[in-house]
Amino acid sequence: MLSNKSIAFKLTLVITLCSTCIFASLLGYNYYRSRLVLRKELVRDARNLTTASVNRIETVLTAVTKVAEGVARSLENTRPTSEELSSLLRSTLAENPEIYGCGAAFEPHATGTDSHPYITYFHRDHGRIVYAPGDTLNYLQQDWYQISRETGKKEWTEPYYEGNVLMATCSVPFYETTDGARHLKGVAFSDVSLDWLTELVASIKVLKNGYAFLISRYGTIVTHPDRAMIMNVTIFGFAEAAKDPTLRELGRKMIKGGSDFIPFTNLKGVKCWVYYAPIPSTGWSLAVVFPETELLDQVKTLSLTGALIGLGGIMLLTMAVVLIARSITFPLKTLAGATTAIARGDFDVELPPVSTQDEVGKLADAFAAMKSSLKEYIKRLTETTAAKERIESELRIARDIQRDFLPRTFPPFPDRQEFDLYAVMEPAKEVAGDFYDFFFVDDTHLCFVIADVSGKGVPAALFMAMSLTLIKATARYGLPPEEILYRVNNVLARENDSCMFVTAFLGILDTESGEVIYANGGHNPPLHLKHGGGVAWLARSGSLMVGVMEDAPYRCERILLEPGDCLFLYTDGVNEAINAREEAFSNDRLERRLRALQGFEIKDVVFGIMADVRAFTGEAPQFDDITMMVIQYRGE
Amino acid sequence: MVAAPSTAKRAFLALAAAVFCVVASTSASAAERTLKKASFIPAWNPQAQFAGYYMALEKGFYQKHGIDLSILNGGPETSTSEYLHSGKADFAVLWLATAIRERAAGVRLVNLAQIIQKSSMMLIARKSSGIAKPADMNGKKVGLWQGPFAIPPRAFFKKYGLRVHEVPQSYTINLFLHGGIDVASAMWYNEYHTILNAGIDPDELSIFLLKDYGINLPEDGLYTLEKTLKNDPTLAKGFAQASLEGWSYAFAHPEETLDVVIRYMREAKLPADRMHQKWMLERMRDLVIPKENRRVMGRLTRNDYTAAGHILLNNGEIRTLPDFKAFTEQSDAQQ
Question: Which residue in the set B168, B174, B199 is minimally distant from A147, CB to CB?
């Protein structure tokens, strides 16, 4: 899918996607961690704040409790007169600025014999301590009296309104023991105004909109930012209105004196966190509430800033990647265009200017170098090709000229019946180093020569031309073979700076007698094919190759050919022909083949051997010039 | 807790429609008359227990019946029968048991309408106090309201042969919540819900609804003195009729009704818990229009009367049961 998109596109896409992924996961992790850390911190703060507030509330309430307990103890141990009781209550109130009022109320039977009134109560009124006789009948069924009376324990009432003042009362029953029986004598009590409590709880601020509320032992909301709820509803009524069983559960945990940090959703569906802790003396519970959104506001702001920075960064990165990718691919694109042009042969195409030293710069440099090298090479190739073509053409001419050196009309002397002769030369290259020749030195003496110049190619061909001319010219004097070779050797060896030489077999046939006198200058010995059958090698002369050393001696040898006998002369291109397995054709094989060809026309013998050599070498390239000559003596 | 099934809703919607037709036919003549002044005292502080009367006043039903009604503030210190007797109020809400006892004692009260059709009083204990059946209450501290409100529980104790330690119970349930008593008196529509909303779950409570134990003393009824009725039968009849119309309206428009009730409570400087009043209004509907059998709203049946009378006779509250016809003179006249 992406394979046909440009490198710049792929690079930009991959890098942008990868960095976005990395950044997003980093941001997510950071958000998650920050939330945890912040929540932890907030729990700690909430707990500290709540604990501190609870302690402050508890201090006051404990003091109030102590007052009621003190009064109760006094009334249990002593039987104060009403004046003494009034003075006790008045001084107690004066010593405890936290409390609003305190008093003692007596069971009805207790007054039967006593002079105590039913109830004695003092309370503050605009800074003064005043005596309030109170209702003498109805207190028996009021919570502050009855609950403590029935439970026989110190009890805190649920908060209640006294006029416009929110109050709570702590009651402690006191007893009298008569005749070993313990009878309830009355209830001592102290009131506290809860205005300070409302203020204290209202002063608890958590974050922006976090608040605290206090519920009584049975869930009545005592303080709350929403004043309509105060003393009107319980947390359970609130839960009922919200149809929220979890809130009811929270309320139950709170009134059971637990403390915890828990999430809950308020009436408006806002997710909040609540930390709550009990106020031990009254069984009330203080809760601190804060909306989760605020808890997360900081994290959100942080994450949002992070996201914006990241977004900007990714955009910059993308732009940078686009620029870099372009700076890489633009020259590449231009180079690609240039390559197409160069492929068409346009070496003058303009290459893009690349100033950088990076890989692209190096590529462009290399490309420029390649272009000029190619241009130079093509130019040289054109020249070389032209030169080679010229040389080849010259060589072709040289080959023709060289061919013309050698007699190629067979039979060469159709009017002479006493002998026949056939020769062939196959050069390995355009021009050859081998040669043969034959000519009459007088009417009855035929001079024939076969030779092989050292080396191959043009030098060998030139040397061959010189050697052939020299031999032919020298032979015209009617000299014997060894003298011809001796003279030719001296001429060739004298100015032979290139150290070339030639092997040559030179013979002179007496056409009347069939006698052949010959000299061998280092050439392969010819074979004598006898008319009656049998093949014999001519003995090796042991003379030096021609042109190697001045004044080298050559020997004259003789052989008499019977009518029908043949001489087979050849160069080493025949017996040393190499096949693909690096095996030589060999003298043995040559001898065997000649035996097999005995009785054939001399032309067929030459072609037969040639065919054998070709068959032997197979696909292997011809390594050396192949030259053969056969002379048959027929006699009269 | 129990929403009225839709059939019941349709029933009283139909009833309300019928009532409106009656009102429409009579209102023309009523408007020409000058309004007669009358006063009415509910049995307690303003709350949804009296929603029907507040709504009848609010929606002008009393006016349509030619009555310029003033609703007095009841409360813990107020005896409604004393108000009737002394002439401080022309009409009052009394419990059936109270009214029969008063009538038997010579006070010439007449039942104009029986609003609550079945007893809603209950005794409540914490399961944790080991009370699961009536016998478990033996020797336990039981909170009883004073005066006629103690009659049904005492009948219950007598029926089950229980000896309990009676403790006077105030109009809060704090004594029970604090564990000062083992068993509390409660009204289904009021204290029971207050206890639930003090954080105690229903499954933590043992509940004895007295009517389930054969003590069926239907509570709120509308009463007047015989002479008041004789003086102006139309007024008394109109008052009862308008009150029932008020109830029908209240049940058909609970939210509007709650607004009005809360307003009355605020004016009386009482804690106003809307959810609690909602509960109370819903329970009132269950009590005023019971779904068990087909009853006519506001009608005191002879069976209910006789059954209540026997309970009172058995418990020594009365010596003779007053004549049903005399007790419900107006009702008979209507029939």
Answer: B174
